Every structure is written in C-alpha cells, then in structure tokens.
C-alpha cells in the first residue's frame, strides 16, 4: 500500500491568518488546562507537552516518551503519539487563531518507532481555513528539531461556539479553567511589569 496521501488540504482554502493578538514568535505557550492529558501539570502520566511559537504560522512542541506511554515494550504507543499530535495541532489552532475549535478529524502516519526516553519535536503548520474548518499538519522529529521524521499528522479542526464546552463538558472543570486563566493572565501582567517597569 502506498504512503501517498490525498491532496492536503482536501478542499479549497483561504490562508489561515493568525489573530492580530496571537503570541509572537519565541513565546512559550502555557498549559491551557492543568488537568489536560496532553499538557497539564496535574496529569501525572500525561504527556506534559510544551510548545513555543515559531516564525511564520508555526508552533514547535516537544514531549519526552516515558514508560507510562508504552505500547510494545520500550516503544511509545501509537494512540499515545496521536494524542501528542492532537495536542500540538490543537495548541497551534487555539493559540494562533484564537478561536475555540475541536478536532473533527486526525490522521497520522507512523514512519519510525519512537522509543521510551526519546523526545519528539513536533512542528505544526496552519494550512488553511474554509469557513469553520481549519486545516493543520505537523511532523514529529526524533530527538532533535531536525532529526528524522518519526510521525506525521494532518487534522481538521472545527470552530465551535463557547457553549460547546459548557453544554458537553464539566461546568466545575470549566470554572477551574477560568480561574487558572485569570491566574495566568495576572502572572503575565506581573512579568510584564518586571520587564517594563
Ligand atoms: C489558547 C487555547 C489553547 C487551546 C489548546 C487546545 C489543545 C487541545 C487539543 C485537543 C483537541 C481535542 O481533542 S477536541 C476533542 C475531540 N473532538 C471532539 O470531541 C469533537 C466531537 N465532535 C463534535 O462535537 C462535532 O462533530 C463537531 C463540533 C466537530 C462538528 O459538529 P457541528 O458543529 O454540528 O458541525 P458539522 O456541520 O457537523 O461540521 C462542520 C463542517 O465540518 C465538516 N466536518 C465535520 N467533521 C468532519 C470530519 N470528521 N471529516 C470531514 N469533515 C468534517 C462538516 O462536513 C461541515 O462541513 P461543511 O458542510 O461546512 O462544508
């Protein structure tokens, strides 16, 4: 079976223009929710993925594979790797576009095994927008930003109204999230004062 995929994006798109208030290149992106399996500090066996905005419409993410992430002995579980890409791609959409969006479709190509102890460097690009549909793709490089590509992914995110989360999610967890965002905002402002007194 060939690895050649269908054209991407699969429909005519407009360029994905980052939000005017999107974080600039070099910005380290914070945890979007402490309990998030992908990035949260409170998710003990989680991925603890960390992301930084790159030049252009790019976000660089990285995470280190631990024993908690195994499928075969000593190797990362494929579904776990897909999760890492979901997080990295979602972080690029959320932070650069600043629009609430959820994963509609996620496609992964596993090219090389990813051993426990290795770090995956994921580079995510915004590929285009068609109405509520945002197309993104990413490559995961093994152990260095220019290391061999171990996994690639492409995803469709769908912009949703904020009530998607209140209707389908946990209101208590949403309150915690709002409190966390306020705290992060305060800390950012305090850091701003330190830099520009
Ligand atoms: C700072 C912050 C950081 C934020 C950082 C965040 C990082 C977190 C990252 C994790 C993100 C996740 O895992 S999110 C969790 C996983 N995903 C979900 O739970 C989503 C579950 N699915 C849904 O709720 C729903 O199916 C939606 C919302 C995706 C779509 O429902 P809808 O709103 O009714 O819209 P619908 O008309 O169906 O679809 C809209 C358009 O998209 C197309 N479409 C929809 N799904 C698909 C699909 N799978 N494949 C192709 N096309 C699709 C439709 O054909 C349509 O095209 P057209 O007719 O307009 O042409």
Automatic annotation (TrEMBL):
Organism, as annotated: Amycolatopsis iheyensis
Gene Ontology molecular function terms on file: hydrolase activity
Name of the featured protein: Acyl-coenzyme A thioesterase THEM4
Stated family: Belongs to the THEM4/THEM5 thioesterase family.
Cell compartments where the protein resides: Cell projection, Ruffle membrane; Cytoplasm; Membrane
GO annotation, cellular component aspect: cytoplasm; membrane
Keywords in alphabetical order: Apoptosis, Cell membrane, Cell projection, Cytoplasm, Fatty acid metabolism, Hydrolase, Lipid metabolism, Membrane, Transit peptide
Occurrences of domain Thioesterase (ranges): 74-139
InterPro entries: HotDog_dom_sf, THEM4/THEM5_acyl-CoA_thioest, Thioestr_dom
Membrane topology: Peripheral membrane protein
GO BP, one annotated term: fatty acid metabolic process
EC code(s) of this entry: 3.1.2.2
Record PANTHER family: ACYL-COENZYME A THIOESTERASE THEM4
Principal location class: membrane
Catalytic activity, as annotated: hexadecanoyl-CoA + H2O = hexadecanoate + CoA + H(+); dodecanoyl-CoA + H2O = dodecanoate + CoA + H(+); (5Z,8Z,11Z,14Z)-eicosatetraenoyl-CoA + H2O = (5Z,8Z,11Z,14Z)-eicosatetraenoate + CoA + H(+); tetradecanoyl-CoA + H2O = tetradecanoate + CoA + H(+)
């Amino acid at each position: 079976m060939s690895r050649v995929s269908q054209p991407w994006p699969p429909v005519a798109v407009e360029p994905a223009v980052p939000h005017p208030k999107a974080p600039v290149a070099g910005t380290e992106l914070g945890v979007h929710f402490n309990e998030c399996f992908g990035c949260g500090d409170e998710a003990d066996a989680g991925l603890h993925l960390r992301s930084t905005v790159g030049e252009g419409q790019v976000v660089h993410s990285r995470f280190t594979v631990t024993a908690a992430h195994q499928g075969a002995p000593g190797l990362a579980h494929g579904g776990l790797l897909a999760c890492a890409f979901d997080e990295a791609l979602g972080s690029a959409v959320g932070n650069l576009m600043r629009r609430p969006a959820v994963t509609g479709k996620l496609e992964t190509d596993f090219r090389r095994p990813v051993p426990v102890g290795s770090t995956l460097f994921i580079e995510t690009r915004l590929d285009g927008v068609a109405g509520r549909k945002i197309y993104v793709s990413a490559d995961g490089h093994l152990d260095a930003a220019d290391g061999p590509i171990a996994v690639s992914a492409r995803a469709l995110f769908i912009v949703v109204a904020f009530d998607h989360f209140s209707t389908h999610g946990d209101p208590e967890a949403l309150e915690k999230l709002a409190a966390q965002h306020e705290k992060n905002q305060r800390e950012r402002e305090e850091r701003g004062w330190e830099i520009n007194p």
